[in-house]
Amino acid sequence: MLDTEDTGRDILAHRRLSDYPDWGYLLREFYEVYRFLPSGGSDRIRAHQRAVREAIGRVKKSNAEIRFDAPAQKPVTAHLKRAFDEGKQERTVPLVRAVESVQDHLIWQYGYEKVPRGLDRTYAYAEICGPNGPVLTTEVILGLVLFAPGCTYPAHAHSGISESYICLSGAVSENHQGVYAPGSMIFNPPEHTHRITVSKLEPALLAYAWIGPQERLANQKMVFSRKKG
Fold it and tell me: For the chain, how many structural domains are there in total?
């Protein structure tokens, strides 16, 4: 006689992207953002955008497996509704709405073994697509990062990973070099140390993409840079 609980787990373990239209739409909106967002004449940024699109295309073509773990929130997610509301007034509204449609499945986390004091209340990220799911793949990592007003995200870099942020709501600055508002992209090549500051008036919701060798994506360690001197 079959154990119904085990059978249920087996069925869920083999769910595919096509079984969850909202997640398919979300990947499509990520793809469209990376298709239409200007590259500013930068060959490197244009190549990164193309690499992200191609990786998303492979994920969709493979009808990737989906695995849902228990959703989780962090203190900063108290600002999520405000971030959604603000984002719906911006050019990135299709992606904002697609994220909102899956919010009940998001697993907000810190990603660091040791979180700097205060950051545990002003920051969290949620992976959308990658080695840890919910959409399981080693092709690309897509996700969201949410910052509370006035947050300072300490300096860090990614080994062997090209990273981009798309601002969906709010406004941020990276390394005090320019201000990024909704619809703009921040591009960080591998090993580039970057620090993010956030407007004191509104939260900031950013989408991100990581591209790199599959072994790098699967084993990337989240570590803040040590201060010199």
Answer: 1
